[in-house]
Amino acid sequence: MRYLFIVKANQGPEPSPALMQAMHKLAQREIQAGRMLDDGGLAPLAMGCQVSVERGELKVLDGPFIEAKEMIGGYAVFDLPGPAEALASAREFMQLHKDFMPGWEGTCEVRAIAGSMTQGR
Amino acid sequence: MSQSDIHRAILGVWRVEQPRLIASLARMLRDVPLAEELTQDALVTALECWPESGVPERPGAWLMATAKTRALDHLRRAPMLARRHGMITAALEVEQNAMPDFDSTLDDDIGDEMLRLIFTACHPVLSPDARAALALRMLCGLTTQEIARAFLLSESTVAQRIVRAKRLLSESGLSYETPQADERNRRLPTVLNVIYLIFNEGYTASRGDDWLRPQLCDEARRLGRVLLALKPDEPEVHGLVALMELNASRNRARVDPQGHPILLMDQDRGLWDTRQIRRGLEALRQARMLGGGAGFFTLQAAIAACHARAQTPEDTDWHSIVGLYNQLSVLTHSPVIELNRAVAVSMVSGPERALEIVAALEDSGALKNYHLLPSVRGELLHRLGRISEARAAFTAAAALATNTRERALLKQRAAALENQGLLRG
After folding, report:
1. Cα–Cα distance for residue pair B2/A15, rounded to 1 Å
2. What is the pLDDT of residues B392-411, one digit of tens each?
3. Taking each helix axis from N to C terminus, what angle separates B181-203 and B296-309, rounded to the nearest 10 degrees?
């Protein structure tokens, strides 16, 4: 089953080098274990834009989005046997943030990708 | 949380941590089978403790600390070993007195150790069944119970198979070998075959009621990616990954809602997974780019790609497929490949030419218990309008099939011809 991990954090300082290094090591391990299919950190909000539909109108908004409290900092796609493994992976990933960047606050949202389910287990 | 939910949660943590645990322990103990055993002990301890205490904050460090304690105990109990491993014991003791160090566990580069695990689990000295069981256990973190369920064997059969395999490795002095590059290259096909065997058992289960056991396909595909990460320059690794992706891309179309198999030419191609096909075609391109176009898995992937590219059954490039099967047949001398070649030939040159290949196979006696031989014969005879002969062939095929679903399909085809025969009078 494939899972999308979306990491959201309050707008604040960039991840510290120590955290970046730890995340890189974890990613390497997960790739070697055949579980991580793709991952990436996202460039600063200032380089992004939003296109939305509001009251039937298209609206384009360029970054930075100062008013937004939370931003998506990165994502990863995993291939895992099931929800228990997904939860364990996400916990390990968030523990890393806790250990390597004290004071960091954020969320890792774990979502199964529809149509990738396998029955059984 | 129910008891079984807690078990699933613990197994989830276990599977995430297991490759690193066993790799680190194997390096410390210089013994892969022993490392496997002690990491299993750590799992058992977790299953005992965590339902009471809750999952610890750093489950990986907890499991590592527990496994290392077991390793220390083991070395103390075996003084001979301890002397040989004197330095390791001392280092372990120092480490044991410190807090579990989550940073250093991340620092382990397990790449080389994973390679060693893979080559140990898939050692040619072991039987193919034992290799598959060990690989699922040591590399995928499946429990004995899960492996037993996947292969429809009893737990005790699988447990015995694993114990015997590990004993054989220890007795043959293979518990911690470091195959050199040229030997690794020589043994790589064995490793690829183990992964393919696991995949195929999931893709077309040889026994039982379900035709497909997708979780085995998934484990095999993960193992393929492990190997890809470790040996990115091996064309046949890409070829195997391509073959597995392309075959698995059809999984949703291969069974009807009741679980009956649907044959390739009858499948709803809209249900094929286009992303998987894309990944498969990309892996095939890589395999060819690395010069592996004529490899066993790459050739098979190329055949699967011909099917994957065809929007409708009529679009299938049978000429290319026959060419690829010709190459494969020369490469392998495998009667199963030859049988597949017969089917492809029938699409290009007609059923008579194909029947000649089938007859030669029957004369050789190589596939006398293989249900697909009479099944293909039945298919060809049917197309030639030789209905009663076709019916007899399908009946013979059904008698040989060991998968319930496949047997039902073959019986159904025989029965359908019976009706047709009656109608024709």
Report:
1. 38
2. 999 999 999 988 888 999 99
3. 40
Helices B335-349, B318-332: inter-axial angle, 10-degree rounding: 160
The answer for residues whose C-beta is within 8 angstroms of residue B99's C-beta and 6 or more apart is: none
**What is the predicted pLDDT for the residue at A61?**
87
Tell me if A118 and B107 make a contact (CB, 8 A cut-off): no
Task: Measure the CA–CA gap between B319 and B328, rounded to whole angstroms.
Answer: 14
d(CA A75, CA A31) in angstroms, rounded, equals 14
Nearest CA in chain B to A87: B12
Is the distance from CB of B233 to CB of B290 less than 8 angstroms? yes
> How buried is A38 (Cβ within 10 angstroms: 0-12 exposed, 13-18 middle, 19+ buried)?
exposed
d(CA B146, CA B158) in angstroms, rounded, equals 10
- The answer to whether B214 contacts chain A (CB < 8 Å) is yes
The two structure tokens encoding residue B142: 């499946």
| Distance in angstroms (rounded) separating the CA atoms of residues B251 and B268 | 11
Q: Looking at residue A68, what DSSP letter applies? A: -
Instruction: Determine the Cα–Cα distance for residues B138 and B146; give it in Å rounded to an integer.
Output: 13
**Nearest chain A Cα to B138, which residue?**
A33
The tens digit of pLDDT for each residue in A48-103 reads 888 999 999 999 988 777 777 788 999 999 999 999 999 999 999 999 999 999 99
Q: Note the residue count of chain B.
A: 425
CB contacts < 8 Å between A and B, how many?
85
DSSP assignment, residue B208?
B
Residues of B in Cβ contact (< 8 Å) with A29: 19-20, 106, 110
Contact (CB, 8 A) for B284 and B305: yes
pTM value > 0.90? no
Return all residues near B170 (Cβ < 8 A) that are at least 6 apart. Answer: B31, B33
Smallest Cβ distance to B213: which of A22, A84, A120?
Answer: A120
Give the DSSP letter string of B113-135: HHHHHHHHHT-TTS-HHHHHHHH
The Cα diameter of chain A in Å comes to 48
How do residues B326-374 score in pLDDT, each as one tens digit?
Answer: 999 999 989 999 999 999 999 999 999 999 999 999 999 888 889 999 9
